[in-house]
Amino acid sequence: MKKADCIAYFAENFGTTKIEAEKMFSFVLDFMYDSALKDGKCVFGPHQMVRKEYKARNGVNPQTGEQISIPAKTKVGYKRLNRS
Fold first, then answer.
1. What is the residue range of 64's domain?
2. How many other C-beta atoms are found inside a 10 Å radius of the C-beta of residue 50?
3. What would the pLDDT profile of 20-46 be if each residue is shown by its tens digit?
4. Rounded to two decimals, what is the model's pTM?
5. What are phi and psi of 3, to 5 degrees?
């Protein structure tokens, strides 16, 4: 499902315009993302967004073979919980 499909679904089910539905949809995703970054994870029903921290490491540029330093970074990943 694409973002436009999700927005249309929101608009239809909440009886609002697509512009308002996009604001609601974006708010929910932004809230979950920010909560996961701040608290380590955000659980929303069977959905979970988890903060993932990657250590700094050395790598190789595949085009030149040059050694490069890859900095540490933090990302947010999605995980669907079991529906048991």
1. 3-80
2. 14
3. 999 998 998 888 888 888 888 888 778
4. 0.64
5. -60, -40
